[in-house]
Amino acid sequence: MIEFRSVRKEYPGGTVAVADVSLVVPSHRTVVLVGSSGSGKTTLLRMVNRMVEPTGGSVLIDDVDVRDEDPVALRRRIGYVMQSSGLLPHVTVIDNIATVPVLAGAKRPAARERARALMDTVGLDGALAKRYPSQLSGGQQQRVGVARALAADPNILLMDEPFGAVDPIVRRELQAELLRLQAELGKTTVFVTHDIDEAFLLGDEVVILAKGGRIAQQGTPNEILENPADDFVRDFVGLAGGPRALSLRETPNGTAVVDATGRVQGMLGA
Ligand SMILES: Nc1ncnc2c1ncn2[C@@H]1O[C@H](COP(=O)(O)OP(=O)(O)O)[C@@H](O)[C@H]1O
Ligand SMILES: [Mg+2]
């Protein structure tokens, strides 16, 4: 379990990136932080592995304040996937992944064996093992990033817009793959995105952030859609005249569900 207790981050210069956030990420669940650019998502995420130190409040993992842990040891036991894959450019795919177990003390052959198994886990063809990151597609690079984040077998996975830079079709593939992985591995996951559809697809719980790191609403996707907290949320999730503002229209073939542009999205009871 990860717990944010009244955390605040004011950067030097005076920008308040996170005002006062309290939030619990239950073990083995995925919580998605969603908000537009600059709403403090990355800042919040990085508080967990101490890449950002809060200027107020605290972050606890299983009731232990992360400030009481050595930052290097902490980062080693938490998987972190960045938007840019963050891979080492002059190191092969297999060794990019194997580096993590090697740093944790494994012998190189054992580490490579683990890396091979992880390539399989994230759906990467073993034939890509000897390639360099620049010789992979964007989607493949992100898979390597996920494999590397899993290499230390962390309980916690932090993912910062990991699928932001790939095209929509590959993005949907990666999302489906993450759902499968999550069902299998059950990591405690904090996932950051600016895409509300991605948030609703992947999150057991979704936290909608407004500017200045304020929580506009948190809840399951159903709770948020059924009972949006205010106009900001209604607008953000597309209920205010957006794609989710559906209405009904009678047709000779039954009742059609129509979106805000008048396009038929489906038939009731079909
Ligand atoms: N190292 C930093 N120094 C000063 N301001 C920063 C720093 N990092 C982020 N910020 C500011 O904090 C706010 C939140 O940033 P960030 O957490 O990166 O948001 P997001 O990930 O939601 O786009 C922004 O206004 C950003 O400019
Ligand atoms: Mg960010």
Quick summary:
With about 270 residues, the protein is α/β, with parallel strands linked by helices. It has helices at about 40-50, 70-75, 95-105, 110-120, 140-150, 170-185, 195-200, 220-225, 230-235; strands at about 1-10, 15-25, 30-35, 55-60, 65, 80, 155-160, 190-195, 205-210, 215-220, 245-250, 255-260, 265. Helix 3 crosses helix 4 (about 110-120) and helix 3 runs parallel beside helix 5.
Topology, element by element:
Layout: E1 2-10, E2 16-25, E3 30-34, H1 41-48, E4 56-61, E5 64-65, H2 71-76, E6 78-81, H3 93-103, H4 108-121, H5 138-150, E7 156-160, H6 168-185, E8 188-193, H7 196-202, E9 205-210, E10 214-219, H8 221-226, H9 231-236, E11 247-251, E12 254-258, E13 264-267
Parallel strand pairs: 3-8, 3-9, 6-7, 7-8
Antiparallel strand pairs: 1-2, 1-4, 4-5, 9-10, 11-12, 12-13
Helix pairs in contact: 3-4, 3-5, 4-5
* Strand segment count: 13
Looking at this structure, what is the CATH superfamily of the largest domain?
A: P-loop containing nucleotide triphosphate hydrolases
What small ligands are held by the chains?
adenosine-5'-diphosphate, magnesium ion
The fraction of residues in strands falls at 25-35%
Q: Which H/E pattern describes the elements?
A: EEEHEEHEHHHEHEHEEHHEEE
The total tally of domains equals 2
Write the CATH fold name of the largest domain: Rossmann fold
Largest sheet: 6 strands, mixed
Which stretches are low in confidence, meaning pLDDT under 50 for 5 or more residues running?
Answer: none
Give the oligomeric state of the chains in this entry, treating copies of one chain as homo and distinct chains as hetero.
Answer: single chain
Q: Could you say which overall geometry the principal axes of the C-alpha atoms support?
A: globular
Number of helices in the DSSP assignment: 9
Portion in helices: 25-40%
Based on CA atoms alone, the radius of gyration comes out at 20 Å
Distance between the termini: 41 Å
CATH architect. name of the largest domain: 3-Layer(aba) Sandwich
